[in-house]
Structures are given as C-alpha cells and as structure tokens.
Specification:
It is found in: Mitochondrion membrane. Belongs to the ATPase protein 8 family. One of its GO terms (cellular component) is proton-transporting ATP synthase complex. The protein is mainly α. 42% of the residues lie in helices and 0% in strands. The mean pLDDT is 84.
C-alpha cells in the first residue's frame, strides 16, 4: 500500500509546515487590525417600519 510509505509525502508535509510556521506566520502576525475591539456596548440601530404601497 503506497499510502503507508512515508517517503514521498512526509518531506513535503514537513517542508510546507516549516515554511508556514517560520516564514508566513510571522509576516501575518505583524499586521495590525483595522478595527481594533473597543469597550463600547453595541448599539442597536433604530429602524422605521416599512410602509407598503398598497396599504
């Protein structure tokens, strides 16, 4: 069964995991979120009822 032979796929999995954890992840963590969380309570918008044209 070729699925149990770790030679072809284990190195690819290990290389991609190391690439993600050592190169891509630190670059992504340096970004600052555009909308930081705030301590204000959420405000529900006040809506007006829809006026149907046939009523």
């Amino acid at each position: 069964m070729p699925q149990l032979n770790p030679h072809p796929w284990f190195f690819i999995m290990l290389a991609s995991w190391l690439t993600f954890s050592l190169i891509i992840q630190p670059k992504l963590l340096t970004f600052v979120t555009m909308n930081p969380p705030s301590n204000k309570p959420p405000i529900a918008p006040s809506t007006t009822p829809w006026t149907w044209p046939w009523t």
